[in-house]
Amino acid sequence: MNCAVDFSAAQLHEIYGANCFSDSEMRARLPKSVYKEVKEVQEGAKPLTLAVAEVVASAMKDWAIDKGATHYTHWFQPLTGSTAEKHDSFISPLPDGKVMMEFSGKELIKGEPDASSFPSGGLRATFEARGYTAWDTTSPAFVREDESGVTLCIPTAFVSYNGEALDKKVPLLRSMDALNAQALRVLKTLGVDAGKVTPTIGPEQEYFLIQRELYDKRSDLMLSGRTVFGTMPAKGQEMDDHYFGNIKEKAAAFMSELNYELWKLGISAKTQHNEVAPNQFELAPIFDSANVATDRNQLVMASMEKIAARHGMVALLHEKPFAGVNGSGKHNNWSMSTDTGLNLLEPGASPEDNANFLLFLVAVIKAVDVYADLLRATASNSGNDHRLGANEAPPAIISIFLGEQLESILESLSEGKPVQSATGETLEIGMTSLPDLPKDLTDRNRTSPFAFTGNKFEFRMVPSSASIAGPNTALNTAVAEILSDFADRLEKASDIKAEIAAIVKETYKAHKRVIFNGNGYSDEWVEEAEKRGLPNIKSTIEAIPVYEGSPSVELFGKHGVFSKEELESRVEIYLEKYSMQINVEAKIMVEMAEKQIYAAAARYGKALSETILKAKEAVASFNTGVYEKTMMKLSENVNGLMETVEELKALIAKAGDEEDVKKAASLFRNEVFAKMGEVREYGDALEEIIPKDEWPFPTYEDLLFRL
Ligand code: ADP
Ligand code: MG
């Protein structure tokens, strides 16, 4: 399918959510009493019984079979960061040679994938390879249609035999429970009526589109997701209108089909636009609960890859596919919402609402300051190491943008200086109203890693290719911890309003060092942040061990989100993953240098020397100086390339031999990755010397200015 989807024929209200076993689908298909019970299970008020599961399984199966499904799968999120599944068919043979379509409650509730093929970081001893997937009732099942047929996908959690989390979903769900419990305690003291508090997430996804044909000629892109050689020619930035038009059309056709597929899944792809770099785009959905948003972001990424292929393109989700070109991230919009529809980070209109807003606002400020290094860790992977602090993405230092007005209000309040309220008298928390805050703060500061945008925070450091589960698990738990302290104080207070005011002022004063409204890309900020004592963690290998440091162990342990063992397993898995990625990139680099660049350089060298000889033969006095100079440059760089490649090979072998996970990761970072930079300089210099026709793989110009 290469044309845009015809939305006029496909009535939007009919296709929207058609492939999602949504709440309304459940209500329509389940007996009233069962539906009610499922809702109670979803809300955590009741455990799931097999009897209820049987009825739901049967309804789910009928719905999926109506859609053409033949198979079902427990769809889960192992620690690799992507999703995994094991397919089973509904078919159950009968003695008379016929078949029946079956799907039991037991099959819905629990699955048993071959857990030994997924990373466990030592949580599951090899003799006990069993792991279980368990139905997550809070995220809707869906059917996926593709060339392999139609499959019912059931979002599931993945745990070991002993109940340890082997995936990203279980800790996220636990963190949502923790936030709910502590936020409700606070709301109760404030007299706000609510039965549940849910963290809400709207993840904006950035990506590149490139031509499949060109991609297939670059083993670095194919095997590691990023280019290990290549430079952006200065003239490349001035794009010709002719190309532009073509790109727009092909990208638009892709987006149109992507929207169609996502809408069918009930995913509200809302905005899409061109990003900073050529061929770079962004998709923003409407926000969901943290759990559903996380599942759906995985589906968005998978759909992008699948649909791009149908259009003869590839969607690159890597954080930094091209050196010197803006990379990709994920803007994780985060807030908290009650089941009564109240956004806890919305300033509200009345003095009381304002006071509650300020209380939750300073809770987030404190959480981000106290757990800055943990948040930084959740945003780290080998791809993001190229971005954070590299003047295009937020710096590696965590700070909060509040906007000048809000900052100055909090600053004055905390210093005991008068602030004007909405009605002109002096502002008193809980007594008089805040002045109107500008609503369009969103784009005021693009250099902040954690920005308040009027009624939510936007965590902008999150890597584009990664699951958003990790950052949100940490954020939910960190905020839960601060709210638990606030609740302790408020529950004992005799004058709630006075206590809120005191907490807001004290907390702001103690944590305002994390507030920064200025330019996060500037060198002055790096210096200033150091003076303020804010951590500046530069790489993945420094960031990941934060997970097992005692503040993290205490935080996650107290709120039942991760045990110490679960945290240690993550450190091991994430560092191993880091090493594996650098290992792959380095090996591809060696291969491209030896098999492609060297060969092209040798051919060009030969052609040049023949030219020189022939020219001299024809005219003895022919000035071959230019050719000779090129020959010299060529030989210098080829020699440099091959020498550094030999060194790189030795370093890869050394790092590969290291058995200690931490030491290996540090060798991959400090030796292998560092050497790759040297190899690249020679390779990129050769790209400039060797004629384009002779260059062995597509250049940045080809990749970024065609589609
Ligand atoms: P912009 O950032 O362009 O101003 P919006 O503020 O409307 O656009 O939304 C950006 C993203 O933030 C969207 O994915 C949106 O759904 C999400 N978002 C909006 N409100 C909330 C909220 N209360 N909690 C979480 N995400 C939200
Ligand atoms: Mg935004």
Automatic annotation (TrEMBL):
Keywords: Coiled coil
GO biological process: glutamine biosynthetic process
SMART domains: Gln-synt_C (SM01230)
Single Gene Ontology MF annotation: glutamine synthetase activity
PROSITE patterns recorded: GLNA_ATP, GS_BETA_GRASP, GS_CATALYTIC
Domain GS beta-grasp: 70-163
Start and end residues of each GS catalytic domain: 179-597
Coiled-coil stretches: 631-658
InterPro entries, A to Z: Gln-synt_C, Gln_synt_N, Gln_synth/guanido_kin_cat_dom, Gln_synth_cat_dom, Gln_synth_gly_rich_site, GS_Type-3, GSIII_N
Domain of life: Bacteria
Family: Belongs to the glutamine synthetase family.
Name of this protein: Glutamine synthetase III
